[in-house]
Amino acid sequence: MTEITVRPLAQADHADWRRLWTAYLTFYETKLPDEVYDITWKRLFTDGEFEPKGFIATLDGKAVGLTHYLYHRSGWSEKNNCYLQDLFADPDVRGKGIGAALIEAVKQEAGKIGVKNVYWMTHETNTTARKLYDRVARRTGFIEYDLL
């Protein structure tokens, strides 16, 4: 029997976090300089209402997934919103509930402080992830625009 565990990132997770985040970035055909890895890791452990946070998922003790999320203000609500920024499960374990467990962990954590809106984006070609997202969330119909 396999057991999925989701817990907050710990300093001891650095090597697993870096491996998983690199695989996530590779999936999106992106590379980041070491300085961005370093500042992101530092921010994940910096106190502050709007600093990013993270969870790691393990399957039978092996790190197999991660998520980063952050809270931000909204003009539409007294409570903050929660943006689930990054979500990744090792390809070898997809379909075993890792992504769903990570999403649920973020939802539960956000709920502890009264946040009701947890949202994220994915690329339209990410059909594997979209099957999960269509099952666990509602699609809003909004289209993202970017000024980069």
TrEMBL record:
Record keyword Transferase present: yes
Gene3D superfamilies xref list: 3.40.630.30
Domain N-acetyltransferase, residue spans: 4-148
Stored Pfam families: Acetyltransf_1 (PF00583)
Keywords: Acyltransferase, Transferase
InterPro entries membership: Acyl_CoA_acyltransferase, Diverse_Substrate_AcTransf, GNAT_dom
UniProt name for this protein: GNAT family N-acetyltransferase
